[in-house]
Amino acid sequence: MSSVVVIVCVGLLAVAALILLARATIGPTVLDRAIAFDVLVAVTVIAVALQGAVRRSTDTLVILVVLTLLGFIGSVAIARFIDPTQVARQAAGDDEGEDADDGMRGELH
Questions:
Q1: At what angle do helices 30-55 and 61-80 cross, to 10 degrees?
Q2: How far is CA 75 from the centre of its chain?
Q3: Confidence band, pLDDT 50/70/90 cuts, at residue 96
Q4: For burial by CB atoms within 10 Å, which of 2, 35, 96, 101 has the most?
Q5: Are 104 and 81 in contact (CB under 8 A)?
Q6: Taking the CB of residue 7, how many other CB atoms lie within 10 A of it?
Q7: Which of 55, 18, 58, 57 lies closest to 40 in space, CA to CA?
Q8: Looking at the predicted structure, is the pLDDT value of residue 5 above 70?
Q9: Cα distance between residue 51 and residue 60, in whole Å
Q10: How many alpha carbons fall within 13 Å on the CB side of residue 102?
Q11: Which has more pLDDT, 27 or 41?
């Protein structure tokens, strides 16, 4: 692989990771943070795959599978505890003075 292509790819991945970290920090809703986390895991998977391609090794396949499963399970776990009524209220724009992070349920249903 051309070293210029690898450097450009690493630079773009680094910029994407920084933007995603900013999105996860700023929020403002739980869904924004969940999507940022999910895409950050995808960027990490791409970075590990790029590293495996540059080194021409298949040792990274196990790491790729584990990271992919981590991202999927994390997304499902977050989606399980999102309150749909809170999301609908936030989409409609009438938060009624509630905190944006109250989209998580306190008890299991």
A1: 170
A2: 8
A3: low
A4: 35
A5: yes
A6: 10
A7: 18
A8: yes
A9: 8
A10: 11
A11: 41
Of the candidates 9, 2, 10, 39, the one whose C-alpha atom is nearest the C-alpha of residue 24 is 39
Closest of 13, 12, 60, 5 to residue 41, by C-alpha: 13
- Residue 104 pairs in a beta bridge with 82
Please give the single-letter amino acid code of residue 54: V
One-letter amino acid at 2 equals S
pLDDT confidence band for 89 (50 / 70 / 90): confident
Q: CA–CA separation, 72 vs 62, rounded Å?
A: 15
Mapped onto helix, strand or coil, the DSSP state of residue 82 is: strand
CA 98 vs CA 24, 28, 33, 45, 87: distances in Å: 20, 12, 18, 36, 12
Residue 86 tokens, joined? 């809170």
Token look-up 């933007």 returns: 19
Residue 62 in tokens: 């196990």
